[in-house]
C-alpha cells in the first residue's frame, strides 16, 4: 500500500475531501510555509493523516518529511474547515473540502532546515514568511496572518469558503 492509498480522504468526480494535520511554526517573527514547482502560492506545512494514524503523529511525520527538522507539538490551535476551487496547479479544476487540525509547534530557536521534500514527484521548498507581511504573499490558509497577530487562549474553529 502506498502513501496515497493510506491517506484519509477520497475523490468523487472532480471533488475531493481530505483530512489533514498541519503545523504552525514560528521562529523570529516568521512563519514557515511550503511551496512547489507547479503551484503559484504558498501553503501550510503538513499533509494527509494516514488511516490509523493520530493527527499528532501525522503532523510530526509531515513536519519531519518536509523540513528535516524535529519539532515538538505545543498545542492544538485551530480546527479549519476549508472549501476551495483550484483554478491552476496540481489540482486544477478540483473542488476541495478539507478538515485540517493545525498544531502550534514549539520554537527550536533556529530557522535552519534540511528539506528534500517531494510530493507526487514535485519538489517542495520551505519559506520563512514575515508574520506581519503575510498579506503580501499568496499564502494559504488565508486566516493565518490575522490569527498570528493576536493572542489565543483556546482552540479556534475557522471556516473558510474560497469557491468561486
List the helices and strands and how they pair.
Elements: H1 3-6, E1 9-12, E2 15-24, E3 26-27, E4 30-36, E5 42-48, H2 55-67, E6 73-85, E7 95-105, E8 118-119, E9 122-130, E10 139-140, H3 144-148, E11 156-162
Describe the fold and architecture:
The protein is mostly beta strands and 164 residues long. It has one domain (3-162): Nucleoside Triphosphate Pyrophosphohydrolase. The protein has helices at residues 3-6, 55-67, 144-148; strands at 9-12, 15-24, 26-27, 30-36, 42-48, 73-85, 95-105, 118-119, 122-130, 139-140, 156-162. The model has no long low-confidence stretch (mean pLDDT 91).
In brief:
This protein has 164 residues and is mainly beta. It contains three helices and eleven strands; from the N terminus they run αβββββαβββββαβ. The chain has one domain (3-162): Nucleoside Triphosphate Pyrophosphohydrolase, CATH 3.90.79.10.
Calculate the terminal CA-CA distance, rounded to whole Å.
35 Å
Q: In one word, what is the shape?
A: globular
Radius of gyration, in angstroms, nearest whole number: 15 Å
**Secondary-structure content class:** mainly beta
List the main descriptive attributes of the protein structure presented here.
single chain, 164 residues, Nucleoside Triphosphate Pyrophosphohydrolase, 11-stranded mixed beta sheet, 13% helix, 45% strand
Amino acid at each position: 500500500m502506498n502513501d496515497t492509498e493510506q491517506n484519509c480522504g477520497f475523490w468523487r468526480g472532480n471533488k475531493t475531501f481530505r483530512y489533514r494535520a498541519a503545523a504552525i511554526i514560528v521562529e523570529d517573527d516568521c512563519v514557515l510555509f511550503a511551496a512547489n514547482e507547479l503551484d503559484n502560492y504558498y501553503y501550510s506545512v503538513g499533509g494527509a493523516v494516514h488511516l490509523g494514524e493520530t493527527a499528532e503523529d501525522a503532523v510530526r511525520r509531515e513536519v519531519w518529511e518536509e523540513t528535516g527538522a524535529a519539532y515538538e507539538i505545543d498545542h492544538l490551535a485551530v480546527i479549519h474547515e476549508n472549501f476551495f476551487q483550484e483554478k491552476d496547479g496540481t489540482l486544477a479544476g478540483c473542488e476541495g473540502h478539507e478538515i485540517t487540525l493545525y498544531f502550534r509547534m514549539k520554537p527550536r530557536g533556529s530557522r535552519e532546515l534540511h528539506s528534500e521534500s517531494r510530493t507526487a514527484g514535485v519538489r517542495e521548498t520551505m519559506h520563512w514568511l514575515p508574520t506581519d507581511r503575510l498579506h503580501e504573499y499568496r499564502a494559504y490558509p488565508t486566516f493565518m496572518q490575522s490569527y498570528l497577530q493576536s493572542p489565543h487562549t483556546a482552540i479556534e474553529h475557522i471556516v473558510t469558503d474560497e469557491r468561486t
